[in-house]
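quick one before i forget lol
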Amino acid sequence: MKMINTVSNDYGTPATPDRSARLGAADSPFEEWVDVSLHLEPALGIIQLSVPDQPGEAPALLMYSDDFEAVLRAAAESDGRGVWCAKYSKLLIPSTHAGAGNRFFTLFQDDPAESRN
């Protein structure tokens, strides 16, 4: 039985630019995790997800988090890289510290602070 590695998009078939560019769409009933670059705007509380090494070729996603400060700290430690699953709106930011574990964050397209008002 082959295990699926959810920390990268290596599932036994090579990633294609087209597949990696679909940050917001999964084309199967199973989870699809896509490697992403992270850019955070602290003044606006926005998390931008984009395909690494392909700036401008794929649309970036602008997202929000209930715990922006935790995402900011985790992204700084991971050199601005993560793995995104659109099906569950989850961002995985791998830890660079041995034994620290990986961090998962739920992201939203609308600002959660505004939706509570």
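fyi The CA atoms of residues 92 and 104 lie 5 Å apart.
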